[in-house]
Amino acid sequence: MMEGTELGPEQKRLLQTSTLCQRQLRKILDDSDLHTIIDGYVDLEMMEFTLHEVLIASISQVTGKSNGKGIRIVNDTAEEIMFETLYGDSVRLQQVLADFLLISVNFTPQGGQLVVVANLTKDQLGQSVHLAHLELRIMHAGGGVPEALLNQMFGSDEEASEEGISLLISRKLVKLMNGDIRYLREAGRSTFIVTVELAAAKGPDSRT
């Protein structure tokens, strides 16, 4: 009903973000058997999207919690990457990013900062299609995610918590996208590094 009315730019953006989050929720509710995902038996969809849509929807899901802790979320991704036309399962990618953002916010100290940055490289597969290698880094201040929780993400702890199961599922979804997850600890900050393979339409030369 709202889509059929005259909306301002900000209202349109909020409506689009709400729609994307609803799609993600429906997908999660359809996951009746988590073992199917953990065992890697999930069909991924192929749809056109931009990273801008996915990131905005993912960040919106943790804004309430980050605001409550006084955490500033900064997106340092170049504009041309944000609006690159990509093809893949955007809903699953959104689910994964929202999960890692939430975990990062949970373990960022009060008043800290969380930075998201993406890099994209492309390999030509044919006349009109590129294989897109997307790398997303979620950097957050503080001591980082506990080692026990990271072990649950990698499936090396049978007594997994709710957070651990969520991370494990997200990593399995990333693996289905021919990607993986790494976690780096540095002095004063830690970083989730998420890599996935997508498709991209033919455009400018490959870039990072």
General description of the model:
Keywords: Phosphoprotein. It catalyses: ATP + protein L-histidine = ADP + protein N-phospho-L-histidine. This is histidine kinase. Pfam families: HATPase_c (PF02518). There is one protein chain. By secondary structure, this protein is an alpha+beta fold. Helix content is 41%, strand content 27%. The chain is built from eight helices and seven strands. Strands 1, 2, 3, 4, 5, 6 and 7 form a seven-stranded mixed beta sheet that branches. Strand 4 and strand 5 form a beta hairpin. The chain is globular, with a radius of gyration of 17 Å. The model has no long low-confidence stretch (mean pLDDT 82).
List keywords for this structure.
208 residues; alpha+beta; 7-stranded mixed β-sheet; 8 helices; histidine kinase; HATPase_dom; protein histidine kinase activity; EC 2.7.13.3
Question: Topology of this protein?
Answer:
Elements (H helix, E strand, L loop, with lengths): L8 H22 L3 H5 L8 E4 H10 L2 H6 L3 E4 L3 H4 L2 E4 L1 H17 L6 E12 L4 E13 L5 H7 L8 H15 L3 E7 L2 E13 L7
Parallel strand pairs: 2-4
Antiparallel strand pairs: 1-3, 3-7, 4-5, 5-7, 6-7
Enzyme class: transferase
Pfam families: HATPase_c
Protein name: histidine kinase
